[in-house]
Amino acid sequence: MTIVIVSSIQDEASTNIKQGLLELDEWDSINTFFGKEVFQHGKFSDVFMVTIPDKTILHEELEQQLKDQLKLLPSQILFISRHRSKSGNPTLSTHPIGNYALAEFGGKTRMLTPAIPRLMTNLLRTMKQKAIENKLIHEVTYEVTHHGPFLKTPTLFAEVGSDLEEWKKKKPALVVAESILSVLHDKKYERDYPTDTPVLIGIGGGHYAPRFTTFALERNVAFGHMIPSYHVKPGHIDKQMLKKAIDATSNVSGIYLDRKALPSLFKKEIESWLEDLGLSLVSSTDFKEI
Asked: Is pTM beyond 0.90 here?
């Protein structure tokens, strides 16, 4: 079992998160990857950090490169990255990756990378707690599945948003770094998490998945792939694409809808799909508070 954290030299937030990781824990420089130092965690010999020369969302073939250059076969990959939005609102976010339609921002068309739902939800909650402790104004949130690269290894992104001013700040990046290390010191691998935390696919709502974020912060659930309302249309979400989201999220036990954000006709359609797929819709009242 191996974890690889991936930073990018083209990304100010990624560089700051990487620096925070190096400052907060002990790491050993053991090799180079694309001419940049490779670090191995001082306590966890199965945790490595590499730096790539291009944008994280566009860097394809990473698994083969890690194998060829470093003899690493990662079990999980964590990208540290910036997040951009038109609003520029300060955010700390985490999300799975893939594309429900055309691959406009890396990855492959209608292909999803495996998610890390329970670990990702632990990271979300930890970032929320540490943001409060550090008096950050940043919104802490999931983002829905929405970009590349395409990987076969379970992967998540941890990000600081949402403009250049925020990406350059040290404190938000340090909070993300501290949160990642806290999660790794707690339970490093998805298989380490209690199986009594149900894993859900979320459908509906906006890009920042506000309903799923609130649900995961308040209830004993974890989300894997999340599908926003803007993808609920022909050519994007159909039974085949839903099955891909289920297959790319380990241990799915149900589908949760942001009902107010979805057309009634879709709700009826998805019930027929789920009957064929062997899953059912769930409600927030089905789960315990935390």
From this structure: yes
